[in-house]
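Give me structure tokens for this 78-residue protein.
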Amino acid sequence: MLNVTFGQVVKNKGNKRSPGVKLAYFLNKDSASYLDSAKIRELDVPPLDPGQSSPDLVYTHTLLSSAPAGQYYFSYKI
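Here you go.
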């Protein structure tokens, strides 16, 4: 078993309040993918005022030891 922890802080670098959005995490074997079928988790990013940063957004994923051998790609996007 392997635990992988992601931690992000989102900052509004614009000059207007940003709406709340989703931060999506993806896992795919052998290549990077942003397809819905590769999505493993979503976290809420709250609305942010200009210059404001989100609280720490942390997600831990457990990759089981029974997973097939190979390269695994973890990625995320807003």
